[in-house]
């Protein structure tokens, strides 16, 4: 069976699609077959990223590894079982189709609570939750006291992950490896960064996730999207001398892939 990686966060602008594309490309460049689904049916940022990549590769004549991005299949009412949700059926059918041809399936969830997102979380072998490194985004994971910054309890999103874990346990599946990715770590505001880090470590022990450094805020990510490129493609497009920022960004990706500890993946780039 394909190993399923779900990238979820109920707040937009956290770097979900950038994370999806870079993880997918890293796996594809390592020789794995990678399937992909974008459950944000409105914005489709991950889907457009893959489309941009395919268009750029065709126009430039380059051979770039491209994830096998699929749309959710349509379903007629007659095909549904009594009481079955149409979105459940569509997602299950899409995953089943990719499972036959993929080693890994990467699912990008919308920045909101939807039925599709809820079901996708229950399918995750690894769940990656990117968050901007601030207490504004920390609210995604837990409610905190505004005066003391003490954790008052889990958020609605954390409760959804807990429910997904319960569903997997009931089905006899292995537990979700939940990873919180600290994105947009900046050199400034060191005091606030330490406070967020301390709060995350405390919360990780309470509700069970791993904290991993993600991507710093860099202009390069905004420049790569229109052509569907990633940090691993720069030499293919003629960038032989990487600047310091690009080298640091590649190291961040290398560290992320090692921290994910995916089965059979040996990070060599």
Automatic annotation (TrEMBL):
InterPro entries per the UniProt record, alphabetical: DNA_Partitioning_ATPase, MipZ, P-loop_NTPase
Gene3D superfamilies named among the record's database cross-references: P-loop containing nucleotide triphosphate hydrolases (3.40.50.300)
Domain of life the protein comes from: Bacteria
Name of the protein in question: Chromosome partitioning protein
Species this chain originates from: Gemmobacter megaterium
């Amino acid at each position: 069976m394909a190993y399923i990686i779900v990238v979820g966060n109920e707040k937009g602008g956290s770097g979900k699609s950038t994370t999806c594309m870079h993880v997918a490309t890293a796996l594809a460049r390592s020789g794995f077959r990678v399937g992909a689904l974008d459950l944000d049916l409105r914005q489709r940022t991950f889907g457009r990223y893959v489309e941009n990549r395919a268009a750029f590769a065709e126009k430039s004549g380059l051979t770039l590894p491209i994830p096998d991005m699929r749309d959710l299949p349509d379903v007629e009412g007659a095909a549904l079982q009594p009481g079955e949700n149409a979105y459940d059926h569509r997602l299950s059918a899409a995953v089943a189709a990719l499972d036959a041809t993929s080693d890994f399936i990467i699912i990008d969830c919308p920045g909101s609570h939807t039925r599709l997102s809820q079901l996708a979380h229950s399918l995750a072998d690894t769940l990656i939750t990117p968050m901007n490194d601030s207490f504004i985004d920390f609210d995604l994971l837990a409610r905190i006291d505004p005066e003391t910054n003490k954790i008052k309890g889990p958020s609605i999103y954390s409760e959804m992950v807990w429910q997904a874990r319960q569903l997997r346990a009931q089905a006899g599946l292995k537990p979700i490896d939940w990873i919180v990715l600290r994105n947009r770590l900046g050199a400034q505001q060191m005091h606030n960064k330490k406070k967020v880090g301390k709060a995350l470590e405390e919360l990780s022990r309470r509700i069970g996730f791993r904290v991993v450094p993600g991507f710093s805020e860099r202009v390069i990510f905004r420049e790569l999207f229109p052509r569907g490129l990633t940090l691993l493609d720069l030499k293919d497009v003629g960038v032989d001398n990487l600047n310091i920022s690009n080298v640091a960004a590649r190291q961040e990706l290398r560290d992320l892939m090692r921290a994910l500890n995916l089965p059979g993946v040996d990070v060599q780039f």
